[in-house]
Amino acid sequence: MLTATGTGPTSTVFVMEQVRQYIIDNFLLGDDSGLDSAESLLDSGIIDSTGIMDVVAFLESRFGVTVEDEDLIADNLDSVRRIAGFVERKLAAQKAA
Amino acid sequence: MHILVHHFLRDSARDRTDKTALIVGETRHTFGEIDRASDAVACALQADGVARGDRVALALENSAEFVIAVWGILKAGAVFVPVNPTTKADKLAYILNDCGVKALVAQASLARQALPALDIARSVTAVLWVGDGVPDDAPGIAWDEVLAGPRRNPTDPGVIDLDLCAIIYTSGSTGRPKGVMLTHRNMINTAWSISTYLGNVAEDVVICLMPLSFDYGLYQVVTGARVGFTVVLEKSFAYPFDTIQTMARHRVTGLPGVPTIFATLLQMEAFEKADLSSLRYISNTAAAFPPAHIRRLRQLQPHATVFSMYGLTECTRVAYLDPARLDDKITSVGKAIPNSETWIVDEVGNRVGPGEVGELVIRGSNVMRGYWGKPDESARRLKDGPFPGEKVLYSGDLFWADAEGFLHFVARKDDVFKCKGEKVSPKEIENVLYELDSVAEACIVGVPDNIDGTAIKAYVVPRQGSNLTEAMVRQHCRARLESYLVPKFVEISGVLPKTESGKIKRTALAEFN
To answer: What pLDDT sits at residue A10?
Structure first.
């Protein structure tokens, strides 16, 4: 697994970069010029409902988190920043369990 | 009396001024507010030179602005052209050019696609931008400016009910979308017919999860204005858990959906646990409703009546199954909707008997005027009926009817299939795949899928020496196509089955799955 120097593999910066890169590669064709990490992915037309499910599949395979029904809400998934926060909370909870 | 579609809004705004017409997120909009705001939009359009019969396109996500813009366009005497908000620049330009759109109402966040399209579409002389973030040098005016200022009344454009009301684009087997022309009379009739068999009442609260650019979504708003009920408009079905909570919170009584939506809901525990006791009906159209899903829905929401329906953009809705017959006719889509009739014909146009498969023909006030600017394609679908001077619609769908006249869908006559409730033209996607230099051959087929019913699968043969990957194919499709047209499955193959004349054998590939 990739690790960012001096931080754990699950640090905010690390997760956020991974998520951001995934979205840029898969939904913005590698062009990151306009992507603001706080921007709503749905409102900006970057991702639609099908795309959200692809993001969920990516999070499950890349970070080993389990996404439950009740996790499928805008608060968790509607921006790069929210997704990163969500993954961190999930990982922390899984570690604690 | 309702002669024109916007009379629905006029009367609801008069009789239920302060009633909630629309809930979007946390915001409620009354019929009165929507009426006033749409007057302002109509005035702005007229000031920009939009006149009776002009086309005005909408490139907007589901929003209050979409609804207000539709009414405003109609009040200005113009024809609205809804475009899926995920449409990419060149297809948007194609649509704008195809029906000579005069004005565009677009979401600022979609400027990435809209601006390049406007460069090509020379007929567009006015743009109305909704929201922030439009580049400073972009032409057009801001929505907020239009709504500001004192109340004004639009000038009466002199429209009659035979005038066009909407042009809705639909995929065809040729790969180029065709604009279905609908008149005010078409929509008045169909809104009456649908809300009559659904038994809609002013107390209904109907949730709309489909895009308003899709006629099934649009009709929730139109029938809502006709009957005076409240529509809970969701941006999309991207966050199903949020949607379920929204349904419970607003005590939703009507849940219209497509099979993909129901398949997802049925997988979720929250759908079982949430208090959805207010649900009065659930309706499905756009693709076959799997009987297992119907049974499970009834088990989970026993208080809700299930309507199995069938339609096509060319006449909006064709048939619905009387819920009282759901148990013994579970695989049927029922019979013709009120004020229309259907029959089934063989290859030469003779009516076939019970149990025989043929093409479904529709006669009624719901049938479109034709395809915009396509007299030949219109003539292939609109043919002489049993009465002199009258055209009936050949659906292009194969059906059989049982002894009691209940309709059963068999297949499309062409390659077109439906995914997530929307028509998919294999040719359109194949054309996009062939844009990749590294693609030698491509074939799109519909494959069975648990969630989508039928999902899109791309078979691609790479050019020799190229390093084509699945990711490259997917990325290219995402850049070029509406999101629902992006293949769910991509298979890179060495060779594709061919006919004797060397054409790719689509049917053989479909049978593999």
So the answer is: 54
pLDDT tens digits along B118-161: 999 999 999 999 998 888 888 899 999 999 978 889 999 999 99
Nearest CA distance, B160 vs chain A (angstrom): 37
For chain A, how many helices (H) and strands (E)? Answer: 4, 0
Q: Do B486 and A50 touch (CB under 8 A)?
A: yes
Domain boundaries, given as residue ranges, for chain B: 7-13+29-179, 237-411, 415-512
Q: What is the pLDDT of residue A36?
A: 83
| CATH number of B237-411, picked from 3.90.1150.10, 3.40.50.12780, 3.30.540.10, 3.40.50.20 | 3.40.50.12780
Q: Do B235 and A43 touch (CB under 8 A)?
A: yes
Q: Give the H or E element holding residue B192.
A: helix B184-197
Residue of B nearest to A51 (CA): B483
Answer CATH for B7-13+29-179 from 3.40.50.980, 3.90.1010.10, 1.10.10.10, 3.40.50.720: 3.40.50.980
CB contact A27 to B (< 8 Å): yes
ipTM of the complex as predicted = 0.71
Q: For chain A, say whether B238 makes contact (Cβ under 8 Å).
A: yes
Of A29, A48, A71, the CB nearest to B86: A48
Instruction: Spell out the residues 6+ positions from residue B465 whose beta carbon is closer than 8 angstroms to its own.
Output: none
pLDDT tens by residue, B354-369: 999 999 999 999 999 9
C-alpha to C-alpha distance for B314 and B427, rounded to whole angstroms: 20
* Superfamily name and number for A12-92: ACP-like (1.10.1200.10)
Is B512's pLDDT higher than 80?
Answer: no
